[in-house]
Amino acid sequence: MYTIEAIPLENAPVVWGKEVLKLRDDYVLLEHSFYDQDLKLVKWIETQEIATFDGRPIPKKLRMKNTDNDEKWTEVEYTHAEFDVELDDNKFTLFSLRDSN
């Protein structure tokens, strides 16, 4: 397992004082913790379920919780994922991103 501790530069304009990621040996995210500027844990994401999509293991279900209320959470569940999909170079221009059509 890998643990990554990301601490921003002193004058960086960021929200978090620190982030800690825990990854399996195959780089699948297990946990991602977010700390405020005083390095107090504020919220974290936990991988609830891992599945293989398009030949790659990824977190299938993730749950984010805040430290101030353990009874509430946000859950994301992937039902399908594709990788190495060809996209038009214009797909992510500012114009294209602003035009929702």
Commentary on this structure:
It is a single chain. With 101 residues, the chain is mainly beta. It has a single domain, classed as outer membrane lipoprotein receptor (LolB), chain A (Clam), CATH 2.50.20.10. Helices cover 5% and strands 50% of the residues. The protein has one helix and six strands, in the order E-E-E-E-E-E-H. The protein has one helix at residues 94-98; strands spanning 2-6, 18-23, 29-35, 41-53, 56-66, 69-77. It has a six-stranded antiparallel beta sheet, with no helix packed on it. A hairpin with a 5-residue loop joins strand 3 (29-35) and strand 4 (41-53). The chain is globular. 3% of the residues are buried. The mean pLDDT is 93.
How would you describe this structure in keywords?
101 residues; mainly beta; outer membrane lipoprotein receptor (LolB), chain A; 6-stranded antiparallel sheet
